[in-house]
Structure formats: structure tokens, C-alpha cells
Amino acid sequence: MTSDDFLTVPEVAQRLRVNPATVRRWIEAGTIPAVKIGRSYRVELAQVQAVIDGHRTTTPLTVGVPSGSVVTS
């Protein structure tokens, strides 16, 4: 395992497009396992991918007319 296998909180936030405070909350809640080094956390890259995989949706997103609406052209 190398230092490239770990990300800082800001790096995790950037990859997931969330606020770093959100990542810190997830770490404190145990949602994302992390290692505390000094005063900062490091998150294993594989754990970030696990979070992404755990939140994938299998239902296709649909955009369009709300159900029950009548569309005329």
C-alpha cells in the first residue's frame, strides 16, 4: 500500500462532489472508514469506491412529463 492509495478529506470531497464537512461527518459516523494521522484523516481509495458502489441506483432516471398528465401535440 502506498500513499497514493489514500486520499485527504478535501480530495474525497472533490471526487464525490460534496463539501469536505460532509466527508468529515461520514467519517465520524463510520460511513467511510478512515485513518487518523495527526490531526487529519486519510481515506483509502477503495473505501471511496465502495461508497460510490453502495449508492448506485438500478432504477433509470426519467425526465419528462409527470405521470397522470395529458400531453397533446
Overview of this protein structure:
There is one protein chain. The chain is an alpha+beta fold and 73 residues long. It has one domain (3-54): Winged helix-like DNA-binding domain superfamily/Winged helix DNA-binding domain (Arc Repressor Mutant, subunit A, Orthogonal Bundle), CATH 1.10.10. The protein contains three helices and three strands. Strand 2 (35-37) and strand 3 form a beta hairpin. The longest helix is centred in the middle third of the chain and has 10 residues, at 20-29. The radius of gyration is 18 Å and the shape is elongated.
User: Termini, distance in Å?
Assistant: 60 Å
Q: Main sheet: which strands, in order across?
A: 1-3-2
Task: Characterize the largest beta sheet: strand count, sense, and whether it forms a barrel.
Answer: 3 strands, antiparallel
CATH architecture: Orthogonal Bundle
Outline the secondary-structure elements.
Elements: E1 6-8, H1 9-16, H2 20-29, E2 35-37, E3 40-44, H3 45-54
Antiparallel strand pairs: 1-3, 2-3
Helix pairs in contact: 1-2
Short description:
The chain has three helices and three strands, in the order βααββα.
Question: Which labels suit this protein?
Answer:
73 residues; alpha+beta; Arc Repressor Mutant, subunit A; 3-stranded antiparallel β-sheet; 3 strands
